[in-house]
TrEMBL record, chain A:
<dbReference type="InterPro" id="IPR043781">
    <property type="entry name" value="DUF5723"/>
</dbReference>
<dbReference type="Pfam" id="PF18990">
    <property type="entry name" value="DUF5723"/>
</dbReference>
<feature type="domain" description="DUF5723">
    <location>
        <begin position="39"/>
        <end position="442"/>
    </location>
</feature>
<protein>
    <recommendedName>
        <fullName>DUF5723 domain-containing protein</fullName>
    </recommendedName>
</protein>
Automatic annotation (TrEMBL), chain B:
<keyword id="KW-0732">Signal</keyword>
<feature type="signal peptide">
    <location>
        <begin position="1"/>
        <end position="21"/>
    </location>
</feature>
<protein>
    <recommendedName>
        <fullName>DUF4249 family protein</fullName>
    </recommendedName>
</protein>
Amino acid sequence: MKKTLLIILCLWGLIPGYTQNKQLLYDFNEIPQSLMLNPGAETLHRWHAGIPFLSGIYANVGVSGFTLNDLFADNGVDFNEKVRNLLFGVSRNDVISLNQQLEIFNIGFRKDGWRGRTYYSFGIYEEIDFFSYWPKDLAILAFEGNSNFINSPFNLGDLNFRGEFLTVFHFGINKKVSEKFTYGVRAKIYSSILNFSSVGNRGTFITEDGQNNFFTHRIQADLELKTSGYASLREAGSDAFVSNLRKRAFLGGNLGLGFDVGFTYKPEEQWTITGSLQDVGFIRHSKDTESYKLNGEFELEGIELSFPEIVNGDGLNDYWQELLDDLEEQVPFDTISNKYTTLRPVKLNGSVKYTFGRKKPSKKECNCEATDREYRNAAGLQLFAVGRPRLPLIALTAFYQTKLTNFLDVKATYTVDKFSFRNLGLGFSSEIGNVNFYILADNLLELQNLAKSHNLSFQLGFNIKLPETEKPY
Amino acid sequence: MIKNFLLVLGIMLLGSSCVKNVDFDQADDLRLTPVVDVSLLFFEETPDRFLINGVELTNGFISDTTDIQVLDDSFIVESLIRAELEFEFTNSVDRAFRAEVVFLDTDTTPIHSFDIDIPATQTEITVTHTENFTEGNIDTITATTQMVVNFFLLPGGQPITEETQGSLKLRSKGTFYLLVE
């Protein structure tokens, strides 16, 4: 047992990547947006309508391996010294990540009124996602040069990043099969505005002891950067891009398809198991694409002088031009316009929840609101994983959720992942009248000094929702 | 109890969040100081290069010229602060030679040169010469667009014939110190 735990912990250290882990929102079913993480979540309301542009505002920034404080702390240490420490301290599997989402609208309703077992929801949201591994060897080469690294290769595969800017049109169906089992599916159309991707790079650059000269420089490269939506931006400038943006955001650009799927299962009265997969899908980039490729192998020992016999008419050699021609021939840099397909990062969520503590008897004889659950408290574990170019990232969360007052639900989470072993999160969801307001933030221990944190995320939004009642409306 | 604790904790944390003791202006101090090692010229020649119709040339020499255009790249011109060029001659011919390295600018005007004498040997001898360019004369390097290597056979000793053994080798490298601000 201890061994297994140790192995798991060791693996954890190797697992790269940052998240988009929304551990606070997941399974927080008082918030209608929890359906966006698990289309098979329990729905506790008759209908909901997000306030346009305000129903879901989410941002997340993450860096692993270092913090802003490591670089910018006002501690008298020379800045370049700090940069150098960072260069060698950060691993090639450390990451820089940014994710932002904004719901344009989000609406849901139960078919056939309060008796209905099917809940429909749909909407549009915008998303920006950027993810890069730390290009360690390239950074060292740029900062230090090759002089201290004779005979040790620089890995060009350290260049690994991707980014996208898109809108997502979605429609979900949530079906309560029985008191024990609910499932749901959400179909998605992705409308890509801008995409760039350079994730399959391989190659090395090495300066090693030479045969005929001091050094042999050798480059082996198989590098590619794919872009869509960029070529026209570069040519037309930012003004034209903005006017183009609306068209692309609303299905006028490169399109993709995907789905979310999920379930809720209650094997026992007080136990709940849930699971979901999000963004199983792809985007086909066929319009406005431009890719850059550098592929080949080249070796250089310097310029070999041949001392031509000018008298005999050998003429002068143009060594330099020959060298450039060779390089261009053997490691050509191509700009091409190829169609390509990107997969969306798949996210997996799962949870086990135990509910307990019967609600206090109401002063009123009958408090018929169905949102008043039988149990006020819930505690459990959640698992999150997201696909990233090298290895998926995994996070484990323990949570506690409770109804603080009749109008306020709170969820607290403790998450362990690559970034932090002490990520404490807190989320509130309030119901005042029919207005639901929620705010969720994690890494609270680091809020004391934001500069010291590896990642931060927050989410907030306003919805109007009508609670479930036992009466027809 | 737990609930109240959570509430108080949440308010406390949200109320006290800030960024402490950081100075982002430090980024202005960022200096990249890469040191780059590059192989330069090399060759291996045999003594018969100094023969014409089987007879040693009087005042014989061989010469070659190459463009070095990387040094007129504006990024390098602005960033190069120091350079060391190392030339290593290995002679295993029983005759003395003189190497002359000449730097030419865009007008093919010589702007810098140096000589290295390589003594005769019956075994093998290596002569190393390092040419340093620092703040005062780094302009010489950045203005260079061509390098000429002349190789003179010095008089004296056994005349060179088809049977003369040995070779003449050059290896050279440059260590370039850049400062990018």
